[in-house]
Amino acid sequence: MTEEHKSLQQIIDFRIEKLQKLREAGINPYPYHYEPTHKSESIKGDYPNLEGKIVRVAGRIMALRKMGKASFAQIMDSEGKIQFFIRKDDVGEETYNHFKLLDIGDYVGVEGYVFTTKTGEISVHTDVFTILAKSIRPLPIVKEKDGKTFDAFADKEQRYRNRHLDLVVNPEVRETFVNRAKIIKSIRNYLDGRGFLEVETPVLQPLYGGANARPFTTHYHALGQTFYLRIADELYLKRLIIGGMDRVYEISKDFRNEGMDRNHNPEFTMLEFYWAYSDYEDNMELVEKMFRQAAESVNVQKTNWGGMEIDLSQPFQKRPFFELLKDATTHDLGNASEDEIRSVCAEHEIEVENNANYGQMLDELMSKLVEPKLIQPTFIIDYPKAISPLAKAHRNGDPQLVERFELVIGGAEFANAFTELNDPIDQRQRLEAQAALKERGDEEAQPVDENFIQAVECGMPPTGGVGIGIDRLTMLLTGNRWIKDVILFPAMRSEDP
Fold first, then answer.
1. What span, in angstroms and rounded, lies between the C-alpha atoms of 82 and 112?
2. Low-confidence ranges of the chain (pLDDT < 70)
3. Is 142 in contact with 26 (CB distance < 8 Å)?
4. From CA 190, how far away is CA 170, in angstroms rounded?
5. Domain span at residue 433?
6. To 5 degrees, how large is the angle CA 384–CA 255–CA 451?
7. Residue pLDDT, tens place only, 402-457
8. Is residue 237 within 8 Å of residue 199, measured between CB atoms?
9. Could you say which of 46, 149, 314, 473 is the most buried, measured as most Cβ atoms within 10 Å of its Cβ?
């Protein structure tokens, strides 16, 4: 009876019996060390120079073809897969019998010379064979025929809950996370090369701020007070600008106690950077170049994202906030009252809460009517002050506007940036207005951070700041449409016992 026809417990029991036989034979099935000399793809890529040469490779057995006196097996390492050939006459009867106790999923080390089989497959002819880890629990069954894969580990929820298995049986998943690392490295290299300093700021904060969001709350027993998991890094990074660190950035975990969908996860990775003596125009240029470099790091210029053809090689567009809203609604909402905006929402069948304020309704109109239609990279510029409490008033003198942009690609937001507000009196007024909204029931409004205001009162130079969602950028550049596909261990509801 093959493994796929046995119960899980039968398989585990049978593998434990094999494990015991190895131990009885004096074999340590979990040794401490092994030193490979080569990886699978490196051997294949350098075959002309390695043919007949001795190599040592290590990895997990992914295919087995056991025969009487000789067998083939395929192992997978961090680069890919390679076949090895093992023969009783070469390794001895005792070692060959140990080999026959192995299963798919076991880790082994193989030493031998590189050759090509009669079918043309580059392989390792085994001289020395070492068991590195005996697996007790079987891997998901994957069948291959004529280059096609069947019965792969495909259930999304189970893949998220068992990412270790997902990485083993779905090579494209491993590639996604390799590319995620390349994207982050590219961003670091870009900012480091322009004189930015990477820093770390507190995850646990006595006050949350820097964004409109509902926080996670915890209790700091040593201090005897409530703390919050940060929703943004902004207010601490600005303190560093005030302290004379002119260019700073942080790639960090942020937390927002909100809903989950294809674009949102409560725990996510953010890049925030602040640049003294710059403004939002400077940062539009920087962000566009940085995105293009990140795309190049994973060999992407054009991408199909959820059926949308997106070209990252072309110049990004710039469109004013109220201009886009006018195109979508036919109404000029720049000086509209709350009642007028509520009427426009009703006209377009956009439901808003009875206590929704001016800014919240504008935000709903933008997110429902405009952003989904912005496919090619577009900077939405010149936002209303009501939804941008930390941005500087617009230099054109319009009292309703601030210098802010959001970068939208494929209908989703990828970056948010301000010419930062550095007027302490204006800053206090806006945060107090936010606090008033909080009193009216807006759970996402920001509290007044007195310590931050006092820092700004010490003097903050002209500054541009940007926040970019790393997870969403990874989604775009790897062609994934669900944020959980680019987070190694996404938040999941507990399974029933």
1. 13
2. 1-5, 142-152, 438, 442-444, 496-497
3. no
4. 31
5. 172-316+376-486
6. 65
7. 999 999 999 999 999 999 999 999 889 888 887 787 677 766 677 888 999 999 99
8. yes
9. 473
Say how far apart CA 400 and CA 406 lie, in whole Å: 17
Into how many domains does the chain fold?
A: 2
Q: Which residue has the tokens 């995850």?
A: 203
Which pair of structure tokens corresponds to residue 332?
């000029």
Q: Do 128 and 194 have their domain in common?
A: no
Distance (Å) of CA 240 to CA 37, 57, 196, 197, 274: 46, 48, 12, 11, 9
Are 290 and 413 in contact, with CB atoms under 8 Å apart?
no
Cα distances (angstroms) measured from residue 249 to each of 318, 449, 451, 473: 25, 21, 21, 17
Sheet holding 217-220, edge to edge: 204-205, 225-229, 217-220
Q: What is the pLDDT of residue 389?
A: 77
| Residue 306 within a domain | yes
Instruction: Establish how many alpha carbons lie within 13 A of residue 471's alpha carbon, considering only the half-sphere containing its beta carbon.
Output: 22
329 vs 373: CA distance, rounded Å: 13
Helix (H, G, I), strand (E, B) or coil at 453: helix
Same structural domain for residues 75 and 215? no
Please tell me whether residues 390 and 257 are part of one structural domain.
yes
pLDDT at 387: 85
Do 206 and 301 have their domain in common? yes
| CATH code of the domain containing 14 | 2.40.50.140
CA distance 180 to 158: 22
Of 210, 204, 239, whose CA–CA distance to 225 is shortest? 204
| DSSP single-letter state for residue 486 | G
Check: CB of residue 172 under 8 Å from CB of residue 80.
Answer: no
Tokens for 181?
């690392």
User: Cα(378)–Cα(25) distance, rounded to whole angstroms?
Assistant: 67
Question: Could you write out the DSSP letters of every residue in 199-234?
Answer: ----SEESS--SSS-PPPEEEETTTTEEEEE-S-SH
Nearest to 110 by CA among 134, 88, 126: 126
Question: β-strands 197-198, 143-145: how paired?
Answer: unpaired
> Are 69 and 8 in a shared domain?
yes
For 146-182, the DSSP string reads TTEEES-S--HHHHHHTHHHHHHH-HHHHHHHHHHHH
CA distance 390 to 98: 67
Rounded distance, CA 289 to CA 138, Å?
Answer: 46
Q: Which of helix, strand or coil describes residue 14?
A: helix
Sign of the dihedral defined by the CA atoms of residues 98, 101, 102, 107, in that order: negative
Is residue 163 in a domain? Answer: no
Instruction: Give a yes or no: residue 107 inside a domain.
Output: yes
Alpha helix stretches (DSSP H) within 193-315: 234-242, 280-297
Whole-model pTM: value is 0.90
As a whole number of angstroms, the distance between CA 378 and CA 410 comes to 9
Q: Is 351 part of any domain? A: no
